[in-house]
């Protein structure tokens, strides 16, 4: 898959996991170096966002997403933002936790690693929504790193992921 950024053309190193596939558990680290596990089945709806860089436009976009995220009760969404390397800035996001893909597991397992200049070996701008049963319910890999995520579609998919899961299997 080709990804554009200004005058550059990058590619995803691997094919992303398909909708419906079991999500992979990955190890990430927070800014203090503590390890966390994301993905897999943990009984919660998980939203994983990745990006190759942080700028004011992306921060504003994340703040807009954060405002709409359900919190508390049965419909809480655990939200994470993953970068390939440490960022020095504190983003002041209340609901979205910042992590580093220090083992490159997210990039490799989810097909989110870029190849090509200027963001070789960084993570692409993507959203992965994992339902309570651990399946990939929705994803969005932007075709241009300057594009915004489809927030309306994302919120609709979060609602659908939470209301379709009964915890009683597929029958």
Count of DSSP-assigned helices: 3
Which sequence of SSEs, written as H and E, runs from N to C? Answer: EEEEEHEEHEEEH
CATH superfamily: Glutaredoxin
Q: What's the architecture in CATH terms?
A: 3-Layer(aba) Sandwich
Shape: globular
Q: What is the share of helical residues?
A: 10-25%
Proportion of residues in β-strands: 25-35%
Indicate how many domains the architecture comprises.
1
State Rg.
15 Å
As for the CATH topology, it is Glutaredoxin
**Termini separation:** 35 Å
Q: What does the average pLDDT come to? A: 92
Largest sheet: 5 strands, mixed
Commentary on this structure:
It contains 3 helices and 10 strands, in the order βββββαββαβββα. The chain has 171 residues and is an alpha+beta fold. The chain starts with a strand and ends in a 7-residue tail after the last helix. A hairpin with a 5-residue loop joins β9 and β10. The chain has helices spanning 56-68, 105-109, 151-164; strands at residues 2-5, 8-12, 26-29, 35-38, 45-50, 77-83, 96-100, 114-115, 126-130, 136-141. The strands form 3 sheets. A 5-stranded mixed sheet has the order 7-6-5-9-10, with helices on one face. It has a 3-stranded antiparallel sheet with strand order 1-2-8, with no helix packed on it. A two-stranded antiparallel ribbon has the order 3-4. The chain is 19% helix and 28% strand. The longest helix is centred in the last third of the chain and has 14 residues, at 151-164. The protein is globular. The mean pLDDT is 92. It has a single domain, classed as Glutaredoxin (3-Layer(aba) Sandwich), CATH 3.40.30.
């Amino acid at each position: 898959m080709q990804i554009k950024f200004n005058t550059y053309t990058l590619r995803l190193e691997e094919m992303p996991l398909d909708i419906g596939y079991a999500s992979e558990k990955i190890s990430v680290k927070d800014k203090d170096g503590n390890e966390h596990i994301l993905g897999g089945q943990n009984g919660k709806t998980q939203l994983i966002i990745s990006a190759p860089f942080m700028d004011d436009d992306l921060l504003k976009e994340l703040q807009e997403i954060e405002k709409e995220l359900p919190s508390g009760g049965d419909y809480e969404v655990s939200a994470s933002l993953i970068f390939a390397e440490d960022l020095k800035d504190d983003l002041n996001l209340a609901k979205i936790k910042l992590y580093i893909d220090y083992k490159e597991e997210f990039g490799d397992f989810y097909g989110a690693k870029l190849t090509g200049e200027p963001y070789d070996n960084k993570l692409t701008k993507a959203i992965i929504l994992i339902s309570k049963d651990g399946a990939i319910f929705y994803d969005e890999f932007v075709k241009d790193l300057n594009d915004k995520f489809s927030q309306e579609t994302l919120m609709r998919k979060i609602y659908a992921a939470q209301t379709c899961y009964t915890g009683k299997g597929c029958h």
